[in-house]
Amino acid sequence: MATTIERLRDLQNSDRIIYRLKKRLAEIPVESEKLSDKFKKETEELVAKDKEVKKEEVTLRETESEVIGLEEEIKKAQRNLMNLKTNREYAALMSEIDGFKKKISNLEEHALLLMDNVVRAKKIRKEEEKRLEKEKGGLDEVLKVLAREESEKQAELSEEEKRRPVLSGAIPGEMLIAYERILKAKANRKALAGVKDNICTGCQTRLPTGTLDKLHKGADLVFCEGCNRLLYLE
Ligand SMILES: [Zn+2]
Q1: Which of 65, 115, 136, 220 has its CA 20 to 30 A from that of 72?
Q2: Are 111 and 215 within one domain?
Q3: Are residues 190 and 167 in the same domain?
Q4: What CA–CA distance (Å, rounded) separates 59 from 68?
Q5: What is the number of structural domains in the chain?
Q6: 122 alpha carbon to ligand 1 midpoint, in Å?
Q7: C-alpha 18 to ligand 1 mean position (Å)
Q8: Distance CA 190, CA 9 (A)
């Protein structure tokens, strides 16, 4: 037949299991969300980069058609050259043609730069897409593991929560109240402390003779003066 203190220790074990399961169950959705959010943000960044590249491609096409327009202007001017009467008119039109040529050369330089940018951006994009695909595979795997862990822990918790009232029901009311009162105040979820070499293992206080006497006589409710825990002899 288990003593009351043994039953209390079983209850404390059960409470610690429940506490740890609940804590982990609260962490899992937060972890999953954090990982999913990170991936979502990276995907959004890729879409934003795509938009930038498209914009550069539009500028490139505009530049190219501007060059074609200027080339047309040059052809027109060259045709007009034959019809000119004076040297002055001829020189003026020639300088206009030179102006067009200069503009074309500037535009072509700009177009080359844009082309380089677009090619580079597309290459980076492709690499990034590959990386994200790989990351997505890894993420799905991690999320699956977390989901599995969650359902396992949930099952363990409901088992333990069924067990707890059986354990607590076997403890006299007065002791159960004392136990639960202490438990609430203890961050480490330990309401009981063993006594070893006359020292409370909960707070390392040397216990007074009176307290030790009570324990040796088998009294049920013996508290540590240092940490208020329920004491038992180890
Ligand atoms: Zn103590």
Answers
A1: 115
A2: no
A3: no
A4: 14
A5: 2
A6: 67
A7: 24
A8: 9
Q: What is the pLDDT of residue 1?
A: 61
CATH for 26? 1.10.287.1490
Considering the domain architecture, whether residues 83 and 127 belong to the same structural domain is answered as yes
Closest CA to 109 of 54, 66, 53, 52: 66
In terms of pLDDT, which residue wins out, 4 or 74? 74
pTM of the model: 0.75
Asked if 160 and 205 sit in the same domain, the reply is: no
Question: What's the 195 CA to ligand 1 centre distance in angstroms?
Answer: 9
CA distance 135 to 31: 16
Range name among 109-123, 141-155, 176-190 with the lowest pLDDT average = 176-190
Closest CA to 209 of 222, 194, 191, 193: 222
Query: How many residues can be counted in the chain?
Result: 234
Domain assignment present for 41 = yes
pLDDT at residue number 4: 85
Q: Cβ neighbours of residue 31 under 8 Å, at least 6 residues apart?
A: 146
**For residue 229, how far is its CA from the centre of ligand 1 (angstroms)?**
6
Q: Are 21 and 129 part of one and the same domain?
A: yes
Q: Ligand 1 mean position to 205 CA, how many Å?
A: 6
Retrieve residue 6's tokens: 């043994």
Structure tokens at 212: 């030790």
Q: Tell whether 96 is covered by a domain.
A: yes
pLDDT at 191 over 70: yes
73 CA → ligand 1 middle, Å: 98
Residue 176 lies in a domain: no
Instruction: Kindly tell me if the per-residue pLDDT of 143 is higher than 80.
Output: yes
> Does residue 196 lie within any of the structural domains?
yes
